[in-house]
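Listing 4. Sequential folding, example run.
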Amino acid sequence: MTLTGISPVLLVADIERSVEYYRDRLGFECEVYGNPPDFAAARRDDATLLLARCADPERLVPNWKIVHNIWNAYIRVDDADAVYEEVQRRGAGIDYTIYDAPHGFREFGVQDPDGHDIAFGQPL
């Protein structure tokens, strides 16, 4: 038996706005479901994030608002510097700049339109 992946589900206020961000700013390919759209899968290489529309956007609470400096998703990469340069070039706002974290990863973070912190990290 083998576990073959994990797909965090992020609750979002607006599927189309979120798809635009993950596609255009982070380079994910997105599939949208529902009429009107209420769910999407954002995929890039072996990473998948699922996006589900929350009918009451005021109930959205990013993890960092509950626990200091905690992400909603942490995506492992093989070249953090290259991903950092790419997402900057694509216009993604950087939440925290790239650095060597004490837990053994070279990482940086972005924040999506709903305030979810998404980290990208490469094992040192």
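-- end of first protein; second protein begins --
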Amino acid sequence: ADLTGRNFVVDSAVKGKVTIISPVKVSVKEAYKVFESVMEIHGFTVVPAGKITKIVPSVEARSKDVELRLRGEVGEREDRVVTQLIPLSYADPNELTQLFKPLISKNSIMVPYQPTRVLIVTGILSNLNRLIRIIREIDREGVGREISLVPMEHANAATMAEGVDKLLQRRGQKAGEGVPGVPGEIDIRIIPDERTNAVVLLASADDTAMVKQLIKL
């Protein structure tokens, strides 16, 4: 409070001491981000409320008056709870809600609103930014394509996605050579999620089965 000039109200459930050591000097803004991250690690979050800032358990923050953000407002990586509205152009909100269940933390909430094709998500901002990047890749026009999540057991998700993507590009270019009407590349998107070590696939049923087989190999 002395450092930032903020007034804090601490929930009775918030207890314990944390020591943070930095080898170099940090700004007040950087120190506050560290503070938010420490709270998030221990299951708490900060919720601005007028002239005060509440420190509450993360599970309770979902029912508080947290900040509301729109899809384009990605912003900086911060460990604080917000509610994010994510409008969709093509993807089905109910389908994405099921897909993202393994990708969001246990303290987060994701609610689909089908009439306006919107996802309503409350959770840690840094995690929501990650989901928005994935959604931007898969919320694209495509007939007969499905979305699926493939967890990695041993391989690294980012490395696997890069390797499979290169292999598919070579296959697509070779398949389309000299054949009228055949595209030069395969219409498949594969996006890694390093936090859960999984890849998100957007492809037809046949291509999805083929990519999953490649991953197993």
